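chain below, 497 aa
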Amino acid sequence: MKKEWFFDRFCGEQIVVYAEDGKIVEVGAESEKHGDVLGNIYKGRVKNVVHGMQAAFIACGMERNCYLPLNEGASILSHYDGGGQIRTTLPMNEGDEILVQVVKPPRGSKGAKVSCDLSFVGKNLIFLPKTDFLGISRKITEEETREELLKEADKLREPGQGFIVRTAAATATKRHLKTESEYLKRIYRAVLEAAKDAPVGSAVYREYDLPIRIMRDSLGDGVSKIYVGDGELYEKVLRLARMRGDIGERKVVHYTGERSMFAYYGLQEQIYGLANPRIKLGNGAYLVIDRTEAMTVFDVNTGRYTGESDLESTVFETNLLAAREIARQVRLRNIGGIVAVDFIDMTEEHRAAVEEELVRALAGDPAKSRVLPMSDLCVTLFTRKRRNNDLSSFLLKPCGHCTRQGYVLSDIYMAMRIRSAALDHFAMGYRALIIELNRGLMNKILSERYFAEELAGPWKGKRIYMIPHSTYPEEKFSVRGDNAAVLTLPNDAQILY
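prediction:
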């Protein structure tokens, strides 16, 4: 199987795509300006303590106060094998200044969830400076290796501290573990030093950006190639690859083609399809995704598929295909929390088989999930832990025309599509482009300077004109090329920067 990673950056966003044999498996997107707050440590102030909820609300400089459970220390570590004296309650008063770490980013109207049990993640170890816990990944199954790694981790910690041994540590040497543990401890000491003079609401530690996290956590021996479409990002990825003995710099390729890298490698339409709530299955059936505040719902439909024998066989085959595709989509779109699946009605025997297929398909996902038994109504519930930013925040934004109850394509997503179309036209030999688009989207592109880096680099010397249309919906645009020395354009046309 050909396993390939693709890294790119444009319009202030970093994009990471993982594909197997040309089919996208994972997509990640992160703003360079704002980034992901997951894992960040803030100096906060306790705004109020709600004893009935066993929770406190902390002002951390974000739009909404953060939520801090006071009795959740043990549950955070419950998915690792290990033990220790884990704090389950934390004395706290209003006005106290504390250090908290984001364990779940804000979403919708909910503020971020934080913890006082700080952790610092390395490739092989997770350092817990304030938690007396020694744990190990359940993916390390060889008993002798587990015992040896736990003994080594125990030697590296001081009283009251803890370590979690990650899956990658199974192939690490004792020297690597010691070096990494000392590095993580230095980071913690630097955080404490920074917190002394930091104002309340400021971040005293920020997690690595998306490409570095991917290089640290996700890449391994099976990777065939790593393609990078941006020069600055290529140098960063190359440096990290040189530090990884299991990758090697020869696998890192700097893509310098004229077209969008994702278009060149046949991934662009797959990425665009992630904005569509309707997903086609191979036999003509389809899924519909509906996202609510509380959960994500998948509805399975037979569509044009009528089967080859009887109705029950048709339904059973469709539900099996749906179970596999649902497992793929929740990973692709990074859907977390509660997921409900409304399968087509079927017999009890077939219900059990479809449920087993869903469990099997989800087992290949790095994110932990738990499937509940299917009900008599053929509805299945399962939970999935979200690993990175919700991809929908990159692809979609609340609609401004229906009291924000629905969603439309986001500005950054539309800029991505316009950029790709522009690259295609420049690759055809055109030196001037005329882009007709929604007036509000044009103003956003100009004010945010989405294409500033392209104009200073590969688009330098080329002419790009934007014609606004008040009647165009936000998702409508057109791009055409022209090599004429003089162009006839309307009065409200604007040259890009």
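The first strand starts at residue 3 and ends at 10. The chain has a mean pLDDT of 87.
thats it, cya
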